[in-house]
Write a structure and sequence with these properties.
The complex is a heterodimer of chains A (119) and B (882). Chain A is an alpha+beta fold and 119 residues long. Chain A contains 5 helices and 3 strands, in the order αβααββαα. Chain A is globular. The chains are: A alpha+beta (119), B alpha+beta (882).
Chain lengths: 119, 882
């Protein structure tokens, strides 16, 4: 077993799922591509660990939120490409609204004055 | 559904996927200008431990269910092996329950469920003639021919009657069972000869050539199944019949009225002068096939029109005569169906009790296991997973029980079949087939789920904290409540079974105590036929031969008394006559005359059978063909027709002869119709006629077979041998057949009931045993749990008696509750047995009360053993314990 990775999966679980689903919304992508996209879109801040990424991908596949196919890439390599499923799209919407609620709430707690000012 | 080999492929794919990731990362680095070697190294470093990533990813796949199942099974088997005592008790309990169910089901399957082996069996009905005293009487030949001609709802119709022939010329002379049949008998049923041909239409007319069909058994026995049997001739009662075909071995209608025989000959061969008479029943019963799409009601309506027309055309003979139709299946199985259903219900109860018992065992054991489950939960096992584990274990137990039960059932069915009532139809078809195996598997799985569910649900809410902390004594209160409920249910079901068995036992005691009107002990009956040379002898010569036979038999060592009995045997065959009284004008039709059962017997009959003489005298050898005609009547006859008047000296005239016979004596009534149902029959009057005064036409038929009853001086063992040697000394061609003791005939008449009584008794005993084990287990558990409390009570001055009362009060509560529920259930359920009971009501208070007492006593006895243990609790040890 790998307690270190397991702990981090649990820690990141909800967030990472959201990031993966969001990334796949722009089109099918393989694991390496997903990790690169997350890194690029977060301005190099979020570095997705492979030990978290692949378990997450396989779990999402098991949950049928994403599906996977073998394709051949531009440089003639066999790659496993993930694609968002219909239920995955729904899941993405609900996770996004939850995340927005959470970040609103966090923001409200962290800087109450600003929030009050806006209201 | 995923299987292990799929998992292997998935593993390879994962490796490829991670490899492609590494490759892409290295390619990117190389594009940015790093050397290929460094780029690969860096990518690998960035990636981390590939093995580890694979492993955590694999964990996300979840256990494939089959793999989990194997894991559960392995774990379950190990757990069961570790508790051999528990496992043995549970498996044995289940084996008894499942085995009993399998055995009964294999009987139900063979007898009731398997389709009848004829084409479109639902179209077949049996046919009888209904007349004033008989709803299902025999059909007269002319009526049959008109029914067949006039009906519009049957595609074919046939009749048959049994006969016994003396067979000579093929091996030793013997008496063979035969049947007269109309030509279309086998084609109506849908049975084709395995060899040769069936009778053709018209071959059953009077005067047609003598031909015969033989059974496959007879074919094998006499001709070694040789195909050149066709065209050979059989000598039956001195006449030659040409064999034209062989009937299949499995042919049987399982009907008393249409029993199978070894030889079948066309009706027209019967030289009975009564055959063409419309008023004569002569023992014919019919089978008919409905036209496709015709219902039984439609056929009944059709036949009632047909018979109405016949009544109008022949009022003398056919007044009050109708046709009775019974669907073949109902006629064949109508009697056994209720018995089998009651037995099925009874075994289902036994299985339920077994399940409850095992559930209780599991529940008690889950005390010790709550810690195990708490630990597994803490280690990450889901609740569903633990539930599944528990169910796997119980199903494993049930399957083991089922396998053992199957073996028990196989053995038990074989044993039971030996004691089966002889007339259980289709008994040969009973055995283990695919349906029985499926039944056992399904019952085992259901049972496993049923008894596994209760403890599993109980552990569904493990108070993790408490379980770990208290060392497994957490939820004992709820658990013991559940156990008590189980015991109450068990006791209630055991009570129902005990009451069922009790009612059957009371029924049998009543029947055994019924006075049949004769003393069956040491009486034996058999048939005997004179040599074929006597078949065409003059009536006087036949009478002389019968007298000679009587004298020789009476002189045989060991014979205390003997008599001829030509027509009727109590609980066996019967014959009826119609008569009117001397002094009355002869009634216009037979239907205005009176009916009576007639016994045609020799002078020794009263003494041989042990029937009581009430008035006047019985026959003597002087009541012969030259003496005035005399009869003896029974007390039912006397009461019915003479009331308080003295019947002696009065005369009656039988319709067949029209001659006056004088009543010279009154004897006690004999239960002709069976021990149980004689009272309820309409026709009970009995008349005795001396053999020697029978008309010549009747005497002419005697040589082919006459009944004899013999009373043994000491006992019937060996008697038959000395009688046989007497007969052999007279003539080697004289055939002795159908020997039976009267005791045996009586026992056979009760066989179906005795069989149900024994089985219900066994099931009830099993139920009682299992439920007392159940109550013992619960009380033991309770005492074990409360050792500390009892120790404190004793330390505080409680006496042993108080402790005993404390423990027993709980079992009394359970027993009383169980009895109350059981009595309520029995009141509703024993009604199902109504038809099987005699002399006792389905809600017999004595049975109910006695059984309730017995069950309570057994429950108390079972809990007394652990209660004594509680009495002996030493407070010091009890308090130090823990």
């Amino acid at each position: 077993m790998a307690p270190r990775y397991q702990n981090r999966i649990e820690l990141l679980q909800g967030t990472l799922d959201l990031l993966i689903l969001q990334t796949l919304q722009w089109g099918p992508q393989h694991g390496y591509g997903i990790s690169q996209a997350i890194r690029a879109n977060s301005g190099e801040i979020l570095q997705v660990d492979t030990g978290s990424l692949y378990p997450a991908l396989h779990r999402l596949e098991h949950q049928k939120w994403i599906s996977a196919d073998w394709k051949v890439s531009e440089n003639k390599q066999r790659v496993r490409v993930y694609r968002l499923s219909a239920t995955g799209k729904k899941q993405l919407l609900s996770e996004r609204s939850r995340w927005e609620q959470l970040s609103d709430a966090m923001a409200g707690v962290l800087s109450p004055a600003k929030r009050g000012g806006q209201a | 559904m995923k299987f292990p080999w799929q998992r292997e492929r998935k593993q390879q794919e994962l490796e490829q996927e991670l490899q492609s990731h590494l490759q892409m990362a290295a390619n990117d680095r190389a594009e940015r200008g790093e050397s290929v070697d460094r780029a690969q190294q860096a990518a690998r470093r960035e990636f981390g431990n590939v093995e580890l990533v694979q492993q955590v990813t694999r964990d996300q796949w979840g256990w494939l269910w089959l793999e989990e199942l194997f894991q559960d099974l392995r774990y379950g088997a190990r757990t069961l092996r570790k508790n051999p005592g528990f496992t043995l008790v549970a498996v044995l309990t289940l084996a008894l329950g499942i085995g009993a169910n399998t055995a009964i089901f294999s009987v139900v399957n063979g007898v009731l469920l398997n389709p009848l082996p004829y084409p479109y069996p639902e179209q077949l009905v049996t046919l009888h003639e209904s007349k004033p005293n008989f709803e299902f009487g025999s059909i007269s030949y002319p009526n049959f021919r008109d029914w067949r001609k006039d009906n519009r709802t049957f595609s074919s119709m046939a009749i048959s009657r049994r006969i016994a022939f003396s067979l000579t010329g093929v091996g030793e002379a013997e008496q063979v069972r035969a049947r007269f049949i109309s030509s279309d008998f086998f084609s109506t049923v849908g049975v084709n000869p395995v060899l040769g041909r069936d009778f053709a239409p018209g071959e059953d007319e009077i005067g047609a050539a003598p031909i015969a069909l033989i059974s496959a058994g007879f074919w094998k026995r006499k001709f070694g199944s040789s195909p050149d049997v066709l065209g050979k001739s059989l000598t039956l009662d001195g006449r030659n019949y040409t064999i034209v075909g062989v009937v299949p071995a499995n042919f049987d209608l399982f009907l008393r009225s249409l029993q199978v025989a070894e030889i079948y000959v066309p009706i027209g061969q019967w030289s009975n002068p009564m055959l063409p008479k419309r008023g004569a029943g002569l023992g014919f019963h019919g089978i008919a096939r409905l036209k496709p799409g015709v219902g039984i009601d439609q056929a009944r309506a059709d036949m009632s029109e047909v018979t109405r027309n016949l009544t109008a055309a022949y009022p003398d003979d056919d007044k009050g005569v109708g046709a009775s139709l019974i669907p073949l299946r109902q006629d064949m199985l109508g009697n056994v169906q209720p018995i089998l259903l009651v037995l099925s219900a009874a075994v289902a109860f036994v299985l339920l009790i077994a399940c409850v018992n095992v559930a209780n065992l599991l529940l008690a054991r889950s005390t010790g296991r709550s810690r195990e489950f708490a630990i597994r939960t803490a280690l990450g096992a889901g609740q569903g997973r633990i539930l599944r584990q528990l169910l796997t274990e119980s199903v494993l137990l049930a399957l083991a029980g089922g396998a053992l039960g199957l073996a028990l059932a196989q053995w038990g069915t074989q044993a039971a079949l030996k004691h089966l009532p002889a007339d259980l139809p289709r008994a040969a078809g009973i055995g283990l087939d695919a349906r029985v195996l499926i039944f056992t598997a399904v019952v085992s799985l259901l049972a496993g789920t049923l008894f596994g569910l209760a403890p599993a649900l109980k552990t569904r809410t493990p108070e993790l904290h408490n379980a770990l902390k208290e060392g497994g004594r957490g939820a004992s209160a709820t658990r013991h409540r559940a156990q008590s409920v189980f015991v109450v249910v068990e006791m209630a079901m055991a009570l129902v079974l005990l009451i069922g068995a009790g009612l059957m036992i009371r029924t049998m005691t009543h029947l055994w105590n019924v006075d049949p009107g004769f003393r069956p002990q040491n009486v034996m009956t058999f048939g005997i036929s004179l040599p074929p040379s006597m078949m065409n002898a003059s009536p006087d010569a036949i009478r002389a031969a019968v007298r000679e036979l009587d004298a020789r038999l009476a002189a045989t060592p060991g014979v205390a008394a003997m008599a001829q009995t030509w027509e009727t045997l109590p609980l066996g065959s019967d014959d009826e006559k119609v008569f009117w009284f001397d002094g009355q004008p002869k009634p216009a039709s037979q239907n205005d005359m009176n009916w009576t059962i007639d016994y045609v017997v020799g002078p020794g009959y009263l003494q041989t059978m042990g029937i009581s003489l009430q008035r006047g005298r019985f026959f003597t050898a002087q009541d012969n063909e030259r003496a005035p005609l005399v009869v003896v009547i029974d007390d039912v006859f006397a009461r019915k027709y003479f009331g308080t008047e003295n019947p002696l000296g009065k005369g009656i005239l039988f319709s067949d002869t029209g001659k006056r016979s004088e009543i010279v004596g009154v004897v006690g009534h004999v239960n002709q119709w069976g021990l149980d149902s004689d009272d309820t029959q309409q026709l009970r009057a009995e008349v005795y006629i001396p053999c020697m005064q029978m008309p010549d036409a009747y005497i002419a038929m005697v040589p082919s077979g006459m009944g004899v009853v013999v009373r043994a001086a000491n006992n019937t063992a060996g008697l038959l041998d000395s009688i046989r040697s007497t007969s052999q000394q007279m003539s080697g061609q004289q055939v002795l057949f159908g020997a039976q003791t009267m005791d045996q005939i009586i026992a056979d008449s009760l066989a179906a009931r005795r069989f149900s009584m024994i089985l219900l008794g066994i099931f009830a005993a099993l139920a009682l045993l299992l439920s007392s084990v159940g109550i013992y287990g619960v009380i033991s558990y309770l005492v074990g749990q409360r050792t500390q409390e009892i120790g404190i009570r004793v330390a505080l001055g409680a006496r042993r008696w108080d402790v005993l009362r404390l423990v027993l009060s709980h079992s009394v509560q359970m027993a009383v509750l169980g009895v109350l529920i059981g009595v309520a259930a029995s009141l509703a359920l024993t009604r199902l047995m109504d038809k099987m009971l005699y002399g006792v009501s389905a809600t017999d208070p004595i049975t109910f009360f006695a059984v309730a007492i017995i069950l309570t006593c057994v429950a108390l006895a079972a809990s007394y053993i652990p209660a004594r243990r509680a009495m002996r609790v030493d407070p010091i040890i009890a308090l130090r314990y823990e």
